[in-house]
Design a protein that fits this description.
single chain; about 5% helix; Porin; mainly beta; globular
């Protein structure tokens, strides 16, 4: 079947914005084991992330595959995170600051139509910055039992963005994405962690071409979380299960009017491992396989993360 025969369908999909998913890139699976506390106390931390994502399906509001000859998306992103945990105290907690810079090093999209319907670009993403409060661990007779943190993350629209592209490294809108992270130790070898986010998006005053002649769009609010449990099989090596979950809880607004049928949903689960070279150096590897996807790409992630404390 020729590509020309598919082209009217592709253009109709593009005009509806069906593939131009609204929510910005958020932390889905970047963090996992022992997430409630920093591993070595106050000071500077450098964390380097590398993530590979591959999807061969783009889903609509019913979870069905969007009707293009191909719906393949593959990208690689490197995220550099710098953290500082100070000696400034607020009761039983310390104050700190996080900053992230993502760079999409590779972005491949194939719609089977020489990308007449799906257009993407790689490049530098949005800067994310967040002050946080790290609470002191609650200790038990054999070590820590519980530790948690609250961070007020803000996503700043500093990344590359084009209204002629469906997929961009930057979102061209401010987002507020605070979270609570916690780790609980069942015993000295076995723990479970969770990081729960709330996402509020402000307006994008330069909407993508798929929205047509409109002045602004505002992506809906969402909840998302990472979760993990792990067991120390040796003092250095931990093995476990990790996952993430996202659900959009309000409709996207176009020119101030809510548009139904665009809410995003996904969850994923997979295996993970963490190797500690010392108290100051740790390597984490996680895999995720997505399930029950709506209005999003449907694929898998491989995540590698290195943590160093200066």
């Amino acid at each position: 079947m020729s590509q020309i025969r598919y082209l009217p369908l592709a253009l109709a999909i593009a005009a509806s914005g069906a593939q131009a998913y609204d929510l910005p890139v958020v932390n889905l699976g970047l963090t996992s084991f022992l997430d409630g506390g920093l591993p070595a106390g106050p000071g500077w931390y450098l964390q380097q992330y590398f993530q590979n994502y591959s999807a061969d399906r783009l889903r609509d509001e019913n979870g069905d595959r969007i009707g293009l000859p191909k719906t393949e998306l593959d990208y690689q992103v490197a995220v550099t995170q710098v953290s500082y945990l100070s000696n400034l105290r607020l009761g039983n907690a310390s104050l700190g600051l996080n900053a992230h810079l993502p760079i999409v090093t590779k972005m491949d999209v194939d719609d089977g139509l020489n990308n007449a319907a799906l257009k993407a670009q790689d490049g530098v993403g949005d800067v994310l910055i967040g002050p946080f409060i790290q609470f002191d661990p609650i200790m038990g007779p054999d070590g820590p039992r519980f530790v948690h943190r609250i961070e007020l993350q803000v996503n700043l629209p500093t990344g590359e963005y084009s209204d002629k592209r469906d997929i961009n490294p930057g979102n061209n809108a401010v987002s507020f994405n605070p979270y609570w992270a916690a780790t609980y130790w069942f015993n000295p070898k076995w723990s479970a962690s969770v990081r729960a986010h709330y996402l509020y998006n402000f307006r994008n005053d330069d909407p993508g071409y798929a929205f047509g002649d409109v002045s602004d769009i505002q992506a809906g609010q969402a909840l998302h979380a990472n979760f993990a449990t792990e067991y120390a099989v040796t003092p250095q090596l931990r093995l476990g299960i990790n996952g993430y979950w996202l659900k959009q809880i309000s409709d996207t607004k176009v020119d101030g009017h809510e548009v139904s049928g665009r809410r995003e949903k996904v969850w994923a689960i997979g295996p993970g491992a963490m190797y500690s070279f010392s108290q100051d150096d740790h390597l984490v590897v996680n895999a995720y396989f997505e399930q029950d996807v709506e209005n999003r790409p449907d694929g898998s992630r491989l995540q590698v993360r290195y943590i160093h404390h200066f």
